[in-house]
Design a protein that fits this description.
The protein has about 160 residues and is of the alpha+beta class. Helices cover about 20% and strands about 25% of the residues. The strands form 2 sheets. A 4-stranded mixed beta sheet has the order 1-2-6-5. The chain is globular. The model has no long low-confidence stretch (mean pLDDT about 90).
Length: about 160
């Protein structure tokens, strides 16, 4: 059992959730999907992006599409200060992981990859990159928080579209 799974099990129990926590390959036979969507906080739970991208390529039929809409990899760097955007001094863009000390994760260890590493994993899996865009608006805002980092000056989300040839 991987270290992350060992860390997840007690958290799930403490939360009172009746969810099984286990490692699995993506279900489905090769070439069974026209579309694979990954987004809104999924990539931070995937420490091996190359394996994820290979599974996506395996699942897609020829001509199938991968669509990713995620938090920008720089988002963990931004503070939630309301007066002006700031970079957190305790985090770095090129770190492999960080502890999320903000709502809703509060203590979860999240994987971290650069935008270049995400794109490289997709392309190395044999998918053809068709679109990559960055957006100033986050895909999620916790209620009651008005962070200056979300006011249009910094990247907060991205989308990626790739095809299996």
């Amino acid at each position: 059992m991987g270290r992350r799974l060992a860390e997840a099990r007690p958290r799930v129990r403490r939360a009172g959730a009746a969810l099984p926590v286990r490692r699995r390959r993506a279900a489905g036979r090769a070439g069974c999907a026209d579309l694979v969507y990954t987004g809104k906080g999924a990539l931070i739970w995937l420490p091996d992006l190359a394996a994820w991208a290979r599974d996506v390529a395996r699942l897609l039929r020829p001509g199938g599409t991968l669509f990713v809409h995620e938090a920008h990899p720089a988002v963990p760097l931004w503070t939630w200060d309301a007066d002006e955007p700031r970079i957190r001094p305790d985090r770095g863009y090129f770190e492999r992981q960080h502890v999320n000390d903000t709502f809703p994760a509060r203590g979860a260890v999240e994987s971290q990859a650069t935008l270049g590493e995400i794109v490289t994993a997709v392309v190395a899996a044999g998918l053809e990159l068709r679109h990559l865009a960055e957006y100033p608006d986050p895909f999620w805002r916790p209620g009651g928080v008005d962070a200056a980092a979300w006011r249009g000056r910094l990247p907060n989300a991205f989308s990626l579209l790739a095809l299996r040839r």
